[in-house]
Design goal:
Strand content: 25-35%
Shape: elongated
Number of helices: 19
């Protein structure tokens, strides 16, 4: 069954509520004060079923809005989720101030389908009705309600005249309404919160996307509270699930009426993030009383929420009436806003509607290069291009699937579907859970190669740069850095030897005095056997400076020509190999030896004996047992 939401709009006392009652049999004025005063104050709700053109059932949920200028804020809480509007204009009064303001709001919210209803047709004669019809046609020219593409129906709630014509027009218009995506991630902006005896806390709203089922866990935005759906009602009937496009009531466990309020939103847990900054495309009405200045404060309405926003205009200091611009809205408290959400702004004083627009980016990056071009891409509306732009702006840091879902409001399947060809073309790479822009990866790889080249130039005595030091230098995550390095190695642009990264075929390049110093160091330790000199003494006798001498020693240690067995002692490899042979030969005479025996065997003092024995222990040549060593 197709479900759509129909909203009313129009001036006070033009017969919106009477129209809804004539269609559905339901009086949408539910408050005692509304019945006493005879005017609609808050949102009212009704529903009906009609057979569509093919005889299939069509379910219509109605949101009846107040028409008084004092209650426009309540009207705004109800029209955000409508698919089809009934613009109500009384034939005996024609176009009035709230007719104009409500219609401005509908256009700013991007409503695409509707019917103009000339109510109280019984209160005027045929000639006057024709005059009003001409006035309204002129008012609607160039808009989505322009006749004849959008019907205009004369109707009387007293006589019922025009009711059948209106129903037929609604069936035709409903057929053109694109169904909302029930497979998307669910969002229910809350418009009512109350307690029902025997059930507890109940919230209602128009389900703008997705599906909500009984026993599902949901998150309340922006508070983060988790609730469980105990029961679901759709248009007053119990149901196992509610789908996008339906008026929905949920019985919730885990929250009281004090924890919830109009303006909050229910969504799947841990999928979205509330935000206090959003980039938008903003249009100022041509009827706005004055230009909108940079950093102006306004009343902000989106879905069912209302708050205050500061408007930071991009690229201009003020926005003229009738003009458009990109802007950043700064909110005092976090709110759940996603790309495509429509909004209205109203002036502080006097409080009138002055503009509106659509959300482009709920996760703006401060001082982002190419920001204007990025917003133009988002405003273009191509899903694949928008996703690529969102990925590209994160450079080689990439963006995770969960971040993309939170930024777009799209499901995992939608994101993967839109990126399938882009991934195939390698314009975007998937590295673990990250999506990384292909050009950003190319730039990172060049940065890595350049960094290694610079390291070789400044460190000729070192065989390569340490892998972790290189990663920190290019500021890449471990996953992305490893993927980039692996690709460079496969393409033979880089070599990785153990922990070192170097250019292909690159080795240590020494000057004559450095090569001579290397030879002297090696000879000094090789000739000393186990009675080695202090390292600083050897370094002090070289022609090169201390820094280069230390690098030469590091090189000898890396190549294992020298072995450092303690902070103070360094031995030549040949001396330690000879020591191993001595100890092995000693094992044939005795499986154990103490420090004295070791000193006698090697001819070294205790200064060398203890560190050498500890080295042999570490190398599993010997094992300490009490004060002696067991030769393994």
């Amino acid at each position: 069954m197709k479900s759509i939401i129909v909203g009313t709009a129009g001036h006070i006392d033009h017969g919106k509520t009477a129209l809804v009652k004539a269609l559905t049999g339901i009086d949408a004025d539910r408050l005692e004060e509304e019945k006493r005063r005879g005017i609609t104050i808050d949102l009212g709700f009704a529903h009906m079923d009609l057979p569509d053109a093919k005889g299939e059932p069509l379910h219509l949920g109605f949101v009846d809005v107040p028409g008084h200028e004092r209650f426009v804020r309540n009207m705004l809480a109800g029209v955000g989720g409508i698919d089809l509007v009934l613009l109500v204009i009384a034939a005996d009064e024609s176009i009035k101030p709230q007719t104009r303001e409500h219609f401005d709001i509908l256009q700013l919210l991007g409503v695409q389908r509707g019917i103009t209803v000339l109510t109280k047709s019984d209160a005027v004669d045929a000639e006057m009705l024709d005059v009003v019809r001409l006035e309204v046609e002129e008012f609607l020219r160039g808009t989505f309600l322009e006749p004849p593409k959008s019907p205009m129906v004369a109707f009387s709630s007293l006589t019922g005249a025009g009711l059948d014509d209106l129903k037929r027009a609604m069936i035709t218009a409903a057929a053109e309404v694109r169904p909302r995506d029930s497979r998307a991630l669910a969002r229910l902006p809350i418009d009512r919160v109350f307690t029902m005896k025997g059930f507890g806390t109940v919230v209602t709203g128009t389900l703008v996307a997705g599906t909500i089922r009984r026993e599902e866990e949901m998150e309340v935005f922006p508070t983060g509270r988790r609730v469980r759906v105990r029961g679901v009602q759709v248009h007053g009937q119990a149901s196992d699930a509610a789908v996008a496009g339906q008026r929905t009531a949920l019985n919730l466990a885990g929250a009281s009426t004090e924890d919830l309020s109009r303006g909050m939103t229910l969504a799947p847990p841990a999928m979205f993030s509330a935000t206090r900054r959003v980039d938008v495309r903003l249009r100022l009405l041509s009827s706005a009383p004055r230009a909108l200045r940079h950093r102006s404060r306004v009343h902000f309405h989106s879905n069912t929420m209302e708050t205050v926003a500061e408007i930071v205009l991009h690229g201009t200091k003020q926005l003229a009436a009738g003009a458009e611009a990109f802007a950043r809205l700064k909110l005092p408290e976090p709110a759940l806003l996603l790309p495509g959400d429509r909004f209205i702004i109203r002036q502080f004083s006097p409080v009138v509607t002055i503009g509106g627009g659509g959300v482009l980016d709920p996760a703006p990056i401060p001082r982002m290069p190419g920001h204007e071009s990025f917003l133009q891409t988002l405003a273009g509306g191509n899903p694949e291009t928008m996703l690529r732009a969102r990925i590209a702006r994160h450079g080689h840091a990439g963006i995770s699937m969960s971040q993309l879902i939170a930024e777009t409001g799209w499901s995992r399947d939608s994101v993967e579907g839109q990126l399938a060809q882009t991934l195939k073309d390698v314009r975007v790479l998937r590295i673990g859970d990250l999506f990384v822009d292909g050009l950003a990866m190319v730039r990172l790889q060049q940065f890595i190669v350049n960094s290694v080249e610079a390291f070789h130039k400044n460190n000729s005595l070192v065989g390569g740069i340490a892998r972790e030091a290189l990663r920190e230098q290019v500021k890449a995550s471990s996953e992305v850095f490893t993927a980039s390095l692996d690709l460079l190695v496969r393409e033979k642009n880089i070599e990785a030897a153990g922990d070192l990264v170097r250019l292909p075929g690159h080795g240590v390049v020494m000057k004559d005095e450095e090569a001579e110093s290397k030879k002297k160091i090696e000879e000094a330790f090789a000739s000393a056997g186990l009675k080695v000199p202090a390292l600083h003494e050897v370094i002090g006798g070289l022609k090169v400076d201390k820094t280069r001498a230390q690098k030469i020693v590091t090189l000898l240690l890396r190549d294992k020509l020298l072995v450092k067995i303690s902070e103070e002692l360094v031995f030549h490899r040949s001396a330690l190999e000879e020591l191993r042979r001595l100890v092995a030969a000693q094992k044939a005479k005795s499986p154990k030896m103490d420090v004295a025996k070791f000193k006698e065997l090697t001819g070294v003092s205790r200064k060398y004996a203890i560190p050498l024995l500890e080295y042999l222990d570490r190398e599993r040549v010997t094992k300490r047992v009490g004060d002696a060593r067991e030769i393994l």
